Amino acid sequence: MESLLRLALVLGGSALVTFAVGRVADLLLRHADARHPETPLWGLLRRCRAPLYAVLATALLRGTLGAVDWAPVREHRVAVAHVLLLCLIGGGAWLAVRVASAVVESSYARYAGRSRDPARVRRVRTQVTLIMRGVAVAVGVIATAVALVTFPSFRTLGTSLLASAGIIGIVAGVAAQSTLGNLFAGFQIAFGDMVRIGDTVVVEGEWGIVEEVTLTFLAVRTWDERRVTLPVSYFTSRPFENWSRGGAEITGTVFVHCDHSTPVALMRAHLREFLETCPTWDRRGWDLVVTDTSPTGITVRALVTARDADDLWATRCAVREELVGWLAREHPQALPRIVTGPASGPTHSDEFST
Question: Domain end: 242, 260, 290, which one?
Answer without folding.
Answer: 242
